[in-house]
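Hi R.,

Here are the chain sequences for the assembly we discussed:
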Amino acid sequence: MIVLLPSRIVQGATLLCLAAISLTLWIALSQPWLGIALKSGGETQPVAIISTHPSGPARALPLPARLVAVGNSGAAGPVEIEADDVIEEPDMFETYEQTGRFMQRQTTLAALLRQPKVALTVATESGQTQSVDLAPARRPLADLPLAFWIQLFTGAGALLIGAYVLAMRPADIATRLFALSGAMITVSAFAAAIYSSRELAIDGELFRVLSAFNHIGALGFGMAMIALFLIYPRRLMSPRLLWIVPAVFVPWLAADILRLAPSQPVGSQLPTLIEMLLIVVMVGVQWLVNGNDPRARAALNWLGLSVIVGAGAFVSLTIAPVLVQMEPVIDQGHAFGFFLLIYAGLALGVGRYRLFDLSEWAFRITFYTGATLLLFAIDAALIVFLQFQPASALGIALLLVGFGYLPLRSLLWNRFVARRGLPEHELFRAIIDVSLAVTAAERSERWRQLLQRLFDPLVMEETQEAVAAVEVREEGLEVRLPPAAATPALVLRYPWRGRRLFGSAHQDLARELVRLMLYTEESRTAYERGSIEERQRIARDLHDDVGARLLSGLYKTDLGETHRVLRDAITDIRTIVSGLSTDQPPLGRMIAALRHETGERLAAAGVELDWPLDPQDDSPLPLDYPAYRCFSAAHREIVSNIIRHAGARRVSIRVGIRADHDGERLTTTIADDGIGIDAAHLEGRPTGNGLRGLLRRVRDANGHVAIRRLPAGTAVEITIPLRAATAAAPQASAPDPHPAFEGCVEAGATPRVRTT
Amino acid sequence: MSAPPKPTKGPTAGRRALVIEDQDDTRAWLIQTLVTAFDGIAVAGVATRAAALAWLRTEGGGAPADSAAKWIALIDLGLPDGSGLDIIREIDRRHGGIVPIVTTIYDDDQHLFDAIAAGAQGYLLKDQHPDMLVQYLHRIDGGEPPLSPSIAQRMLKHFARLKPQAVPDEAGASTLTAREIDVLRLLGRGLRVAEAARVLGLTPHTIAGYVKNIYRKLNISSRAEAAIEASRRGLT
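And here is the predicted structure of the full complex:
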């Protein structure tokens, strides 16, 4: 399947149209010209010369006058002019014989006019007859009548609008039929433009060909329209059956062209009229069957109305009167303007009623394509213009072009035509920009903007269909992107404003884009999850530790106790905050801080501390925050208990790291020489808040606490995994038993924890 | 320090102090602590940086430059109208007779380190027990500034980073002696002055002297650094 790009179709149609206009103008202007305007004046004064062109060959003719005959000063005798010779449209004759005779006379007259000298016999108002020798010249462009231009404009407009609708949906049979109808109007109007604007005569053979084209176009338009309304808005029959329409009218058309029909009205006007009636009928049928589809009805109303009003006016004002043997109400040439109504109506209806499922974006393609063509046209005009400049003016003109036109052209080109890409390094930044947008709506918006910048598609819409990967479809007309950046799957159509197709390089780019986008989104989600966890952790710590402590302070009656509780709460906050400043404080730093703090506290209480330096406690080993938090809080709590309850004189602390198959564990043993611990504690029923909190905390960290009674005093051993990852592993190992300890109670994380 | 603190009352006649603290209750409490610690001391309290600088302009000139009983300024770092660091710098520059001491609630070592570099001669944590606070005040007053492990570690890093030739050496201010480094290492691992003294076989008083010297070197070297930085940027 050959895929035509929308812009190619429009550009092709534009070129075709320009060629057809040129050909039409060339034929019209290459006819011999005398510079007289003729009008049929009725039976008695058949053909009047109503005006002469001021610079034409016949400018010296006395007016008013009547054209009696055209002859040649040399050979053949003059041919008398009849009223029918200046008829605009030979279809108005009732019989083919009349038409044949008319064509014959046109050939004769045209042959006379092509001679270097033409003898016109004119009769003045007073009845005097005189013969004037004139030399036919070339017809100037400005002499072409208004009707010529109306037909040219209508034909061109119909062709271009039809092509533009086709360009949007080239595979759709409805748009094809619509475009065909436009092309038919062009054929019909351009042909009629030539012969209806003739001065007096064109060659009969040319006339017959043009007339045939006119008929083909007229009936072709009707056929295309009937077929269109058979399938649009609702498909009333299979498109294959549409051949019935030409099957009926093409033989009729052939019969007319070959003059086999019973009479000219039956061969020419009757099928046109029937077609018009069928169009009206089909619009009516469509209107009825689309009663439950307001959108289709709105579209139909607009298109049907345009066609009925446009074509109906043409038929009823120029063709129908002939059938009932009346004069056409207005010139056919002027009446052609009605057809433009159809196409202008369509152009207006596209945006509003989504005719042929097109929408406003469809205009833009025409605009941009037009901009390209216009620039080329200006270029061409400039080249032609410069060629005709005298040498002296050429320099100035070149300067103007260089400093005025070229920069302007480059500006316009970049604005409307040039394809804008994105350098690679900016691409990455753009993706980061997308993923860093705060809200989902903003991310989606930036994602679309990025795609617009990269591919400049005319259409970008969301699709409900599942799109798993980047996919180029419709032979490169569209690309589908999977959901990304808080945006559903997207369909991008007509890249670079319809001027290019998606290729494999673009597919790769889109894949890379989506891959990067998803990757940054994932990172972002992970980061967000991390910060949420962090916030939850802070909230939990504040609530569980600081909150619980302040609450207990609230109920203390002793002011000294309250102060102590408040100080402990501040210390808690200090620990939480210092945990925030670094992700993983080194173990050595925590031990140093604990040693310093413990030393100061015990010194203030008059207790001696035995905590010698150990090479191990200078460890740079990073410590997870939960382990850090748990370890220092538990340590602090035990020291507090010793200061408050033990009555000790000396405290020994040893901290060590033990590695076993579960990973590394941090162990601290805090032994005092005080009064010893309550039996309740040894049985795992701690009485104080502090100790209960300690047990919970250690359990949460997947560690365990062993409390033993010593011969004199108490030893508490805390063991916690260094890292959360190893904390998840079951704790099968037993801490190093201390033979000096008598009793032991443990608070373990799981039932697997060692019991006494 | 293995004995409970015993408030000592030195010669304090005519001695004055300034408490810069925006919380009224805390300020009153700090004033009370100073009065408890130093018999006969006259304490003024202000709540803002501007008021503190004004007090220094009008009253600060009376501070004895070479007396044993120097005046004391307790300075909160976070003040409503700016940083207490400015007050420390002002005292460091013009009032040799006043001992600037930072009072803070969180021992955020970055801020404390900056304060020491600016010229603070000690710091106190406000949440300590009043008895402890009095004890620490006496220590600072007696030329024994505190040095937490994290600040000690920071100082080690600071002097290791410092290029001796980059800073004009004012009495070896940009380098630490081997002993000073030993002291910092021990303090950085959490030992207190007395313990460090035991490990090094020195008296606590000598160790305290080293700490005070390290404070001074940090202050001098950071001032010199600031001057070099300023001249490099063409500010002076």
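Residues 725-756 of chain A have pLDDT under 50 and may be disordered. Chain A touches chain B through 26 residues (CB under 8 Å).

Let me know if anything looks off.

Best,
T.
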